Amino acid sequence: MITGATRWSLAIFLAVFALYLVTSSREPAWGDARGMWEVANRIVDHRAIDITTRWPEDIPAGRGGKYYGIAPIGPSAVHVPGAVVAQVTHAIAPRHDVLVRPLATHLAPAALGALTCVLMFLLLLDLGIRPRTASICTAILACATTTWVYARMPYSEILQMTCFLGLFRQVLRVCKEPLRKDALWLGVWAGCLFNAKYVFASAILGAAAVIVWTLRRRWPELVRVIGWAAVTGVPLLVIALVYNYLRWSSITRTGYEPYLDMYFGGSVFDGAWGMLLSPNKSALLYSPPLVLALLALPAAVRAVPRLGLAMLAVVVPVFLVYCTYRSWSGDYAWGPRFFVWAVPVLLVPLAWFIDRSASRWRRGVVIGVVTAGVIVQLLGASLYWDHFIRISIDTKNQWLGPPNRAGSYIPAKGRGHCDSCFEDTYQLLWTPAFQPIRGHWWLVKSLARGDDWKAAQADAPWRRYTTLEVNLANTYPRARLDWWILLWIEDAPHTRGAGLAILGVLVGALALGIWLWLRLHRAAEAPAAAARQGGGG
What is the model's pTM? Predict the structure, then answer.
């Protein structure tokens, strides 16, 4: 029998999954994502976990003198279904690889983004939020926060977001009523989160502290929760340790050891200020609804005290760790990449703001903020973020002078740049002339007009500060609009038939998902409306 919550979950998943695939990227896996995708391909094609691409470029060889992906197994495991799709379609129609492989690369992120939205809806129901309000908040999470951008990129952030939200929800459920089913799921989400990225061990410890504190006077229940959570969590921990051993010949080696000293040790204040309040990278700029959630946080904590305790113990430790990361923004990225995991959890208080938005002006505020969030995500999704970042570095070096990297904690190693070090990216973090949201708007307009690099500079963001014309011949021509449909329009016209067929299926799924979601949404409002009419009579 399909319950009401199941109907909601299916409708939300279908609508959001289809939306993310319809708006998916045409870019392959770049940067950190390349190793994750390559491991998945190696597992499917060769039953192996070593890779041929050395990334990071200075990563030492591992077991057997081979190179391995630096990330845990989780970010690669989720790409295995996509790799299977790519392999099967290659065997059937290799001419369509140029179309299918990018879509296959982004299959898992889209599914994880949709799952995140389902978990958000269910968490809000758990907290006593009305289904209609939970539905609105879920739609806002899907379309007006960085969830959208990272659900179309094969990086690990979307997996971290999903697993973190899953763990957070189970902590609250276990604290409310320690049932065996919820304890088992607690272990699953904790193990998946650990396999997503090892830094979340601090969140898992915080979750354990919340549960122990809540059940401290109910020892039999606490022992049962720990036991059942271990049943599902320990095997996933073993998988992580075995994967470490297969790569580095030690269960305790993670692959990150050579980089800990150079990347960690930054200022907690600088990292917190940057991720929350910097003019270019504040999370509040890239997920505007978080502002409303922040305003409603006191009301949410008063209504559900365990929510505030869980946020304090589970969110804050990971946030503080990332604040000490010298490249706290996670560049190259859209917004602060190392804050993405926390967005759904921190958005939860938005439900209280919406429930108190009966007046016209408050509804107007919500609509305005959500609209701003949608626009920001559309700009983020319109381009692969590397394009404007490289243009900004190129312009900054010609305008303000090349940086002195002699004392950089992150050495250039002969590459002429050091990617995410302060010397090369400070303009992306702090300088208004290179604000990435404005930069994407400028670049999208320039590409749509067909401007060359000289014509595009007429209204470039930095031209408000300098009349200097810079030479962008090496960076601007690489930029292109990022939408998978352009694969069969521009890149590979011979795949147009297949592209139209895939688009038709996805649009149909999107229409069905939205219809089912709206139907449930309207039905959920009917009892409340009837109650109001009855009271008025």
Answer: 0.96
* pLDDT for the residue 303: 97
C-alpha to C-alpha distance for 345 and 123, rounded to whole angstroms: 9
By three-state DSSP, how is residue 518 classified? Answer: helix
Query: 134-172: per-residue pLDDT in tens?
Result: 999 999 999 999 999 999 999 999 999 999 999 999 999
Residue 167 contacts residue 314 (beta carbons within 8 Å)? yes
- In the chain, where the domains are located: 25-89+99-378, 385-406+417-481
Which has the closest alpha carbon to 101: 91, 111, 87?
A: 87
Among residues 481, 446, 473, 450, the alpha carbon closest in space to that of 460 is found at 446
Residues 6+ apart with CB under 8 A from 217: none
Integer Cα distance of 128 and 320 in angstroms: 30
Three-state secondary structure string covering 74-93? HHHHCCHHHHHHHHHHHHHC
Distance in angstroms (rounded) separating the CA atoms of residues 507 and 262: 46
Rounded distance between C-alpha atoms, residue 31 and residue 68, angstroms:
14
16 phi and psi, to 5 degrees? -75, -40
Q: Which residues contact 188 (CB under 8 A, 6 or more apart)?
A: 166, 232, 233, 236
Place of tokens 């197994």: 73
Mean residue pLDDT of the chain comes to 94
Q: Phi, psi (5° rounding) for residue 423?
A: -60, -35
User: Cα(136)–Cα(314) distance, rounded to whole angstroms?
Assistant: 25
> In this model, does residue 404 exceed pLDDT 50?
yes
Buried-state track 493-511, b at ≥16 Cβ within 10 A, e below 16: eebeebbeebeeebeebbe
CB atoms within 10 A of CB 404: 8
Count CB atoms within 10 A of the CB of residue 452: 12
Q: Is the pLDDT of residue 525 over 80?
A: no
Please state, in angstroms and rounded to a whole number, the distance separating the CA atoms of residues 362 and 251. Answer: 54
147: Cβ–Cβ under 8 A, 6 or more apart, which residues?
A: 113, 116, 117, 141, 158, 161, 340, 343, 344
Tell me the residue length of the chain: 537
Are 326 and 277 within 8 A, CB to CB?
Answer: no
Rounded CA separation 170/186 (Å): 5
pLDDT at 526 over 70: no
In this structure, the number of other CB atoms found within 10 A of the CB of residue 124 comes to 24
Residue type, 168: F
Place of tokens 């352009």: 486
Per residue in 459-515, pLDDT (tens digit) is 999 999 999 999 999 999 999 999 999 999 999 999 999 999 999 999 999 999 999
How far is Cα 11 from Cα 4, in angstroms, rounded to an integer? 11
Measured between alpha carbons, how far is 68 from 55 in angstroms, rounded to an integer?
A: 8
Distances (CA, A) of 527 to 115, 132, 189, 311: 28, 11, 35, 33
